[in-house]
Amino acid sequence: MKKNVLIIGAGGVARVVAHKCAQNNDVLGEIHIASRTRSKCEEIVASVHDMGNMKQDGVLEAHALDAMDVAATVALIRKTGCQIVINVGTAFLNMSVLSACIEAGVAYIDTAIHEEPNKICETPPWYGNYEWPRKDECARAGVTAILGAGFDPGVVNAFARLAKDDYVDTITDIDIVDINAGNHGKYFSTNFDPEINFREFTGTVYSWQDSQWKENAMFEVGQEFDLPVVGKQKAYMSGHDEVHSLAKNMGSPNVRFWMGFGDHYINVFTVLKNLGLLSEQPVKTAEGLEVVPLKVVKAVLPDPSSLAPNYTGKTCIGDFVKGTKDGKPAEVFIYNVADHKEAYEEVGSQGISYTAGVPPVAAAMLVASGEWDVKTMVNVEELAPKPFLHILNQIGLPTCIRDENGDRPLDFS
Amino acid sequence: MKKNVLIIGAGGVARVVAHKCAQNNDVLGEIHIASRTRSKCEEIVASVHDMGNMKQDGVLEAHALDAMDVAATVALIRKTGCQIVINVGTAFLNMSVLSACIEAGVAYIDTAIHEEPNKICETPPWYGNYEWPRKDECARAGVTAILGAGFDPGVVNAFARLAKDDYVDTITDIDIVDINAGNHGKYFSTNFDPEINFREFTGTVYSWQDSQWKENAMFEVGQEFDLPVVGKQKAYMSGHDEVHSLAKNMGSPNVRFWMGFGDHYINVFTVLKNLGLLSEQPVKTAEGLEVVPLKVVKAVLPDPSSLAPNYTGKTCIGDFVKGTKDGKPAEVFIYNVADHKEAYEEVGSQGISYTAGVPPVAAAMLVASGEWDVKTMVNVEELAPKPFLHILNQIGLPTCIRDENGDRPLDFS
């Protein structure tokens, strides 16, 4: 049994994590939240109290922390007595925070692969570049490190594992589809950190096809999907973390990720990319100032967390899994539908932050209970999916299934 | 008689000015070229020699100068003995360079209104904000200051005056149309300094209609024009310097400026503007760096002078002037057609730089000869147009006329 959670980060996802941890502080214990700017953490703490989201009286505390500083992070972990760290700061921090968790001997949970500021879309599998080489280190230290425990990656990995366990014994295709059919009412905005969002789409699109890595350009391969609730939606094959672990762990010759984009998004993205404004490499202005164009684009775009109050509509994210079951063709779509407005009313965030922030809290609850406290590094599909989906069912992200037997909520009875 | 020319600036237009001055150094005397970065001036000097553009042996010299520094500019004027300054540096320099010319008692020629870095599209008439308030100062000092002596403003002002002198005695409408039907082969580029280019289009579009200032948004009012050589072209009512002086000096109740834009330009412009990337006001990145978005856009776009080698096609810029002549309806289109490739072959620049850079040299030749050495501040339409157009006819920018009597070169006989 582990307890007390340190949340690293103070953006839209961190806010959801804090609210959800507070709603489950009977299981999780003390909640600490730390980022470079302490006032952002304090604002989140205040919002948790304002919305009455503390399940029971307890500690909910804000801290200033530069999480690139491993010693400072270790010190904060020790000072607070946290045994679980949920890292939802920028993806550039991951390896530093993992180092701190290993040194302090506490559990680590993140929601996205580690990135280096000056590199994008490195060699596949991406987890092989930074995370997996440290698995032995985690095992030796008996440290549980759960990688990519957001929605995608995260819940969609559990969906794939559930499909394999119960619906399709020999898998040929895993197609993960992420559609945001919401409307934020702005000319343009990304739904999470623009820097991370655009970095996802400026590099090579890696997919796993015929049991090998295949390279495409962004927006090169598009397909229409007919989905529950959100209907027919155009999505494009995109690079995404989970493809890189599912390709290794699921034995499926095909793993692809599809992200929904409207024509307007594609137009804005294409203009910015072609002009060089999405580059992570610095340019020099005529006045001699060195600046990374992508960071300026981020500075002019709306703060994704500011979208929440006016965001309407729904998201649908799920896995089409195809293959055979008992020798016969089988196909299943396992998915979740979330609502932007409901998310805002519950925790003050929009649906994209909500779907990303609730799952690592469910993971933390399973680490706390011991069920997922595996004392080594794992991706989510290596863990039993049902306890995870069961908690998510209870804390705001219910799972549904659509197959030849109809479209229905997943039955946990 | 004045002689010896100091060119301020080392961009694409300055290059044309230098080459054209060199081609006419029998009239103009010594040629000096100065900018912050002396190596850029040296590169221009070398290109003049390489292309054999010195008409006769003489001085052609590069200097380092911060033209915001009035004392330094006065010192350079005195040291070089220049009696004519052609200011084709950034529009932010104009008032400093004018101050230096007044102090040194030499002639001043520019090609665009003065701008302050943090302001765009100030109250009309624009010349009333910085230039015209200094007219008395010029007159008292006996200093010739010719404002806006590029193509537009500049030659188009002379076209309007020519129309009034010879073709339309009571003018009702002056519509200046600027079409670039060239192709530079890049995804996107502005044809001159992106910072100045975009600043033209981000603010209010001021036009002079029914003898008063009217405000529109950019791309709000569009119209198709059928022009010689370049054919039917869509153009949009835009703010432009010459509207602000012609409205005062021509007695026409309507003065409008129309700039041709393709759908692709408008799309890129619209995306950048709506995102806030064309703003001249600084933003702060997440890392705390203060940066002006427009300067970053400038940094990622192609250097306009780099377009020249592959630029093909033609420009057509001219004035539709409408009204009555001897009591009967009259209409004339006075225009020039320039060719990007021919410009490059002659002076190593593309056509937009060429049309902007040749006219101030013609103006300098008229100041040198005394014909335009008026010893006060003037806009081009206040000066006799024919000597100007006659020189331009000889040095690369011939004038044509289209009216009820046909489409023909302007006759100077």
UniProtKB/TrEMBL annotation, chains A, B:
Domain of life: Bacteria
All copies of domain Saccharopine dehydrogenase NADP binding, residue ranges: 5-146
Sequence ranges assigned to domain Saccharopine dehydrogenase-like C-terminal in this UniProt record: 150-396
Record-linked InterPro entries: NAD(P)-bd_dom_sf, Sacchrp_dh-like_C, Sacchrp_dh_NADP-bd
PANTHER family: CARBOXYNORSPERMIDINE SYNTHASE
Name the UniProt record assigns to this protein: Saccharopine dehydrogenase NADP-binding domain-containing protein
